[in-house]
Amino acid sequence: MATVTLNNIRKNYGSLEVVKGVDLEIRDREFIVLVGPSGCGKTTLLRMIAGLETITSGDLAIDGKRVNDVQPDERGLAMVFQSYALYPHMSVADNMGFALRMAGVPKAERQSKVRDAARILQLEPYLDRRPGQLSGGQRQRVAIGRAIVRNPKVFLFDEPLSNLDAALRMQMRIELARLHHELDATMIYVTHDQVEAMTLADRIVVVNGGRIEQVGAPMEIYANPVSTFVAGFIGAPKMNLLAGKLQCTSDAAQAILEDGSAVTLPTRPGLANGDAITIGIRPEALRVTADGSLAGRVTVVEHLGGETLTHIELASGQLATVKTDERAPAKVGQTVRLGVDPRRLHLFGPDGRAVSRRSEALQPG
Amino acid sequence: MERPLTQRIFAAVAGWGLAIIMFFPILWMAMTAFKREPEAIASPPLIFFEPTLRNFEQVLDRADYLHFFFNSVIVSVGSTLLGLAVGLPAAYALAFHPGKRAKDLLVWMLSTKMMPAVGVLVPIYLMFKSAGLLDSRIGLVVLYMLVNLPIIIWMLFTFFREVPREILEAARLDGARPLRQFIHLLIPLTAPGIASTALLSIILAWNEAFWSINLTVSNATPLTAFIASFSSPQGLFWAKLSAASLLAIGPILVFGWITQRQLVRGLTFGAVK
What we know:
The complex is a heterodimer of chains A (365) and B (273). Chain A is an alpha+beta fold and 365 residues long. Chain A folds into 2 domains: 4-231, Rossmann fold, CATH 3.40.50; 237-348, CATH 2.40.50.140. Helix content of chain A is 23%, strand content 33%. Chain A has helices at residues 42-50, 92-102, 107-120, 136-149, 166-183, 194-200, 218-223, 228-233, and strands at residues 4-13, 16-26, 31-35, 57-62, 65-66, 77-80, 154-158, 186-191, 203-208, 211-216, 240-248, 253-257, 262-264, 276-281, 286-288, 294-303, 308-314, 319-324, 335-340, 345-348. Chain A has a 6-stranded mixed sheet with strand order 6-7-8-3-9-10, with helices on both faces. In chain A, helix 2 packs across helix 3 (107-120), helix 2 packs parallel to helix 4 (136-149) and helix 3 crosses helix 4. The longest helix of chain A is centred in the middle third of the chain and has 18 residues, at 166-183. Chain A is elongated. Chain B is mainly alpha-helical and 273 residues long. Chain B has a domain at 64-229: MetI-like fold (Orthogonal Bundle), CATH 1.10.3720.10. Helix content of chain B is 75%, strand content 1%. Chain B has helices at residues 5-33, 37-40, 54-62, 65-96, 102-111, 121-131, 137-161, 165-173, 178-189, 191-207, 210-215, 223-228, 238-267, 269-272, and strands spanning 231-232, 235-236. A two-stranded antiparallel sheet of chain B has the order 1-2. In chain B, strand 1 and strand 2 form a beta hairpin. In chain B, helix 1 crosses helix 13. Chain B is globular, with a radius of gyration of 23 Å. The chains are: A alpha+beta (365), B mainly alpha (273). The A-B interface holds A 50-52, 71-73, 77-79, 81-83, 85-89, 98-99, 102-103, 146, 150 and B 164, 166-167, 169-177, 180, 184-185, 188-189.
């Protein structure tokens, strides 16, 4: 059992506030991913949980016990660092057994625990090597092994895959998912890569500017982003965000874009006529069709094999991406019309927050 | 990529020229040590002569070389060990837990080396006198330690700064508090640097003359005072002075020769990583 509770956690460096009051309840055995752009405070948050940074104010509890002033090694955590932070002068076995050695565990027991972890991570042939003699992926596994050996209540990962190449990153991602299943431990994972967040997390925590923007299961966040920030950050390629003004009539609501084109909205939002709004459309929800409400010119076509991305410059000057499963619906330079399915449209108010879909639903068509 | 021939010739000439200029006084001293007194002051200087060991006999006859030698060893090694005992924790604190004024502190420490030693001769002398440290080895050990401490701390600080912070943080999570981080990580990781710091400190202490000549009389006199004792009021005896000098610098030259690989490795530790 290991829950981690953050209660109004803040961090100041001098007069600079980098974490601005974070509340979060991490459940037992949950894989939680903190995701956000660089400098958003997610790593600082993780380091405060680890005990490597002091907490300026607020309470941090592990299993209900306040640990603000508990030494890092007594919090029952293990951390995997972005740079792996292996001890370069020690063998792989010594690296993995270091914590046990510090804890005074007898040598025989230490060795058997190191061997167990090495087996899980397929590191057995490398136990006598130094970190310098290993590849990036192997070093990464040693760093994870060092964490496993300690049998911690909570695993902390600080962008562990960012130093690996794309193929290895995908492989390690799958391995991490398998490990979480196998170890059945609470894991807190920091990344700026939304793909890692989507694929690994039980729940994603989107962090922006030192605050939590949204917490939820990956598909929940994908389907219902609470703000333009989350909408733009989660999902690849990015959601198309188009600025416009709200125009309501008695029986319909429309977004009027800068070039005058009108997009029909599924609901009448609780906003005033003429308010600045942003509509969000996932690239897969846009389609090229002769009777579409938006017009634009194809600028780039990217064939990715299984899918095709068509980048279009709209008449309003804004850029939009269309994702299709088949070949490109149009050629570069061609002028096309784009249709929007109102049911798959996201609507954000003047403050960038999502406008509730349930408010005053209009009957479609 | 090969450099052009002219450049290589220039580099070779400059390098050898510089080396010869630096080495010449030592070579000349070594030659003089084997000359007879009249040959030593002959003008024009003699390059070819019949070598003799008489100067060494006379020098060793007149003074107890081993007494000076052991004083030098005790004072240089002792001050170095003491310097490391103070410098290692100081450099650790400055490198890994710097306060707001850490940079200023480092600059201030180095600035103390810019002051001429003679500027504090009188206060130091009086302090030594009232503490009963005049002509004592312990006095020299403490003084040399203080004189070399800024350099020791600076060097150790630079070596420690090369150690990635995350390694120590990982060790913290693994249950290693500062002392154990020191023993299990910092010392093995920066061993070449610590060794070269120690070597440099030993060499500097061995060659220090100003304080040893002014603060010792007989009991604690190291080899630098031994040399000085041969520039007597009756006049300079170049050959004997050279023989004494050779005896004084001999051990440290051999020491430096043996440890030079370590010394160079340590001094370029950061550069090659």
